Amino acid sequence: MFGFVVFLLSETVIFLSFFVGYIVFKTSATDWLPPGVEGLEVRSPAIATAILVSSSFVITIAERYLHRENLWGFRSFWLLTMVMGSTFLYAQAMEWLSLPFGFTAGTFGGTFYLLTGFHGLHVLAGIVMQGVMLGRSFIPNNYAGGEHGVASTSLFWHFVDVIWIVLFALIYLWQ
Amino acid sequence: MSDATLTALPKTEQPHPGAPDNWKRFFTFSTDHKVIGIQYIVTAFFFFLIGGLLAMVMRGELITPAADLVDRTVYNGLFTMHGTIMLFMWTFPFLNGLANYLVPLMIGARDMAFPKLNAVAFWMVPVFGVILMASFLVPGGPSQSGWWAYPPVSLQNPTGNLINGQLLWLVAVALSGISSILGAVNIVTTIVRMRALGLGWFRMPVFVWAVMSAQIIQLFGLPALTAGAVMLLFDLAVGTSFFNPAGGGDPVLYQHFFWFYSHPAVYVIILPIFGVFSEVFPVHARKPLFGYPFVAVSSLVITGLSGVVWVHHMFASGTPDWMRMLFMFSTMLISVPTGVKVFAWVATVWGGKIQLTTPMLFALGGLVMFLFAGVTGIMLASAPFDIHVNNTYFVVGHFHYVIYGAAVMGAYAAIYHWFPKMTGHMYYEGLGKLHFALTFIGANLNFFPMHPLGLQGMPRRVASYDPEFAFWNVIASIGGFILGLSTLPFILNILSSWVQGKKAPNNPWRAIGLEWLVSSPPPHENFAEIPVVVSGPYGYGSNEPLVELAESKAAE
């Protein structure tokens, strides 16, 4: 667990570097948004944000069930977290498909897709980790071994959520 | 240290079930930290030889003012690959290998915290090595933009091929970053969580302190370089414009990402070498390390300060004056904790029963060259002087005194010091001393002339130069060839003594430290019984034992 926390601190620096890049590009750009783009739509990403942030509470409930050795309670809420994470990813994919600009549309296009894409990869990694933990919960007598992985996965999920809150504020609220 | 303590620990190597117990184990996906350590060290040294050969071609080119041995394009590829190989393929893997081998032994652990992750991190090294070397074979040859890969130069792709030298360079550097971050997570976790009972922070050898401090830099600095490399990769391969001024990007931002890591990277290299000096001097001068707690903590202070010095590489990049002042001050400040170490080593050696063994000679030689590097470092920290000699050979000279003079000499000191422990054989002292003499003379002849050349105004990264610079260049090239020659007695010594050298005792230097309590080479899982540490690591001259064993205690 300590090693995982250390790893997440290192990951934070990668995200911070991208955030710094975004701020530098935005504050120094003369033409920030690509031609013909007025701004990003906020409503759908805000709903996706609400779902992702709520999933942090859901995963905590799942963990509590595990501590009380209620495996079915754990599995239900754990699966709900996975569904919520997948919904977030689906919403992001839909947004990407609807946008009129691409990765190479100036520094805005580049940083937008880089940040949301890199974060999306983390969400995907989190869902895969959750899937593995869910699978492990069905292996008989694996309860003690699974708990450590569950705690790390949960921590990773909270990390992904916190990063998204900063990212959402930077990209969607500060337009 | 009592003999009872020494005999209570294992003397023979016990192979673990299913693992080959001969040279073949070094070619397997082993999870034993000692095997991985030697795998790292040997791989790194292989690339050191390649990087050195590239340097010799460059010195061959520079022996005359005209570009007559290789053309300018090839020369650009040579200095780019020399720098990249020496930093990413030699120093980092070598020091990771040393840390891998020694840290668990020094802290009384059976292995690293994550043995499989450890093996994965190592096996990434040959992979990115092959990717990097493949760039010699692609159309257009290897990257020509220097090891710092500044855009917009690094964004040029004259061949138009997607797979080009610069792309392979960026992929290799990004992979190297991932490998090093995994290694750092492992090493820091091992040190924080797996120390033997009684091994408090201030009973930990300075080498372990130094390795931990260096790995903290890897954890917090390397992601910035990786982020910059990924963005540059997209600019080059996909056509984004993060750092491309033509598309509204900011090339100076890349310099910030690059130097935010790459200046502290010098401390990633030099801190473990400081650790080596701190282990070698007390043993071979038979004295306790002077000011141990200060030397230990100064590594962490250097780590902290290393995060606020990067802009001194950008004094000539349009940096505003207030920022130049700030970073000039912070850069000079780092000489304080460094000075603490230097004075402590001098005080340790002072009045000691100095034994001029090969590791001691290399450590003393490395210290002398580091002192010189430190003085020119303070000169370069001063913005007015730095702007004057910016992009001249003065900077190259300073850098090589740090990296070759201190780091490579320190690396050799480490190899000779721990060679008996790693292989179970003694090296040949005569060949070792010949190696030292050639290295010290060659390095100084090679790198000292770069300082007057820089002051006279000879620019770096050029294949041809004005004839007025010829004298010092000839001297430097002769030094370079001597330096190249110096590796021959080393290779001969290591190979022959590994195969047929005199059997090494468990503790040939009569040193204090947990690694010297186990057999040479150490058994699998290191300790039959995890020792309880009862005193500090530098008690030379005192009779208090270093460890206590439950068995011996029960017998009392």
TrEMBL record, chain B:
Q: Which organism is it from?
A: Rubidibacter lacunae KORDI 51-2
**Signal peptide residues on this chain, from the entry's feature table:** none
Keyword flag Lipid metabolism: no
**Residue intervals of the Cytochrome oxidase subunit I profile domain:** 23-534
Residue ranges spanning the membrane: these are 35-58, 78-99, 120-138, 167-194, 206-238, 258-277, 289-313, 325-348, 360-381, 401-419, 431-449, 469-495
What biological function has been recorded for the protein in this entry? Cytochrome c oxidase is the component of the respiratory chain that catalyzes the reduction of oxygen to water. Subunits 1-3 form the functional core of the enzyme complex. CO I is the catalytic subunit of the enzyme. Electrons originating in cytochrome c are transferred via the copper A center of subunit 2 and heme A of subunit 1 to the bimetallic center formed by heme A3 and copper B.
Recorded catalytic reaction(s): these are:
4 Fe(II)-[cytochrome c] + O2 + 8 H(+)(in) = 4 Fe(III)-[cytochrome c] + 2 H2O + 4 H(+)(out)
Q: Which family does it belong to?
A: Belongs to the heme-copper respiratory oxidase family.
A GO term from the CC aspect: plasma membrane
Q: Name one GO biological process term.
A: electron transport coupled proton transport
Q: Which pathway does this polypeptide act in?
A: Energy metabolism; oxidative phosphorylation
Q: What is this protein called?
A: Cytochrome c oxidase subunit 1
Q: What InterPro entries does this protein's entry cite?
A: Cyt_c_oxase-like_su1_dom, Cyt_c_oxase-like_su1_sf, Cyt_C_Oxase_1, Cyt_c_Oxase_su1_BS, Cyt_c_oxidase_su1_bac
